[in-house]
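TA notes, week 10

Several of you asked for a full example with nothing omitted. So below is the full record: structure tokens for the whole chain, then the designed sequence directly under it. When grading your own attempts, check the secondary structure regions first.
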């Protein structure tokens, strides 16, 4: 079992919030580093390995979207949790577009933040301990859960951790219609909020990467019911 202490980078210009998060996470056994500036945060992320990044959007020198994009280009797998006062749907979608995996709106309860951090880090640890070597396949699409690689028709497809989690859930349930509630509970570890379109957003992300450039479509919408991964008839 992997008992290595997990390292978390906190990029937040409000020193009170940053220090409270850092203190709370350290009390739970995590190692933290804080940056109060977007450019500095981006440089720290480039110079060191982190198991998770907590990232504000409104930052000096470089905003959180740019920081997220820079981190994601270097490391497609590190979970990035955006923590921001910008709570509109467009803000969230922009965050997801640049590679964020989750989104918490200020003001927030530290217990909620901690729960989401735990979910990401426990999942990455269990993934690292998975030595089954079993490949997941449908049509010409193949997922290797051990190496986190996705290949379709011989082409490697880069996915964010949350996109990969969604695709893996769909392929493990191939041929079965799964509802938005199912997806929210199993992929986001949360109750589905009918006021959010995060599931649709991520389905669209996957379609662009998995289906758009291929003749056979695999991700299908069942109106009023949910989504199903199957070969196009």
């Amino acid at each position: 079992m992997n008992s290595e202490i997990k390292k978390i980078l906190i990029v937040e210009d409000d020193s009170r919030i940053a220090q409270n998060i850092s203190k709370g996470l350290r009390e739970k056994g995590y190692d933290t580093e804080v940056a109060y500036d977007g450019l500095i945060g981006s440089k720290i992320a480039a110079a060191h390995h982190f198991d998770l990044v907590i990232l504000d959007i409104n930052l000096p020198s470089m905003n959180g979207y740019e920081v997220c994009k820079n981190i994601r280009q270097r490391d497609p797998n590190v979970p990035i949790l955006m923590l921001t006062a910008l709570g509109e749907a467009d803000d969230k979608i922009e965050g997801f577009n640049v590679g964020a995996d989750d989104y918490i709106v200020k003001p927030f309860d530290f217990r909620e933040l901690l729960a989401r951090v735990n979910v990401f880090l426990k999942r990455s640890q269990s993934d690292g301990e998975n030595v089954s070597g079993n490949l997941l396949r449908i049509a010409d699409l193949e997922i290797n859960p051990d190496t986190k690689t996705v290949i379709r028709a011989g082409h490697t497809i880069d996915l964010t951790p949350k996109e990969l989690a969604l695709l893996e859930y769909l392929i493990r349930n191939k041929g079965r219609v799964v509802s938005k509630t199912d997806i929210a509970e199993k992929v986001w570890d949360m109750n589905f909020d009918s006021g959010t379109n995060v599931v649709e957003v991520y389905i669209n992300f996957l379609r662009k990467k998995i289906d758009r450039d291929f003749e056979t479509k695999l991700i299908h919408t069942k109106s009023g019911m949910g989504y199903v991964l199957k070969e196009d008839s």
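Residues 7-128 form a domain with the Rossmann fold fold (CATH 3.40.50.2300). Use that as a sanity check on your answer.
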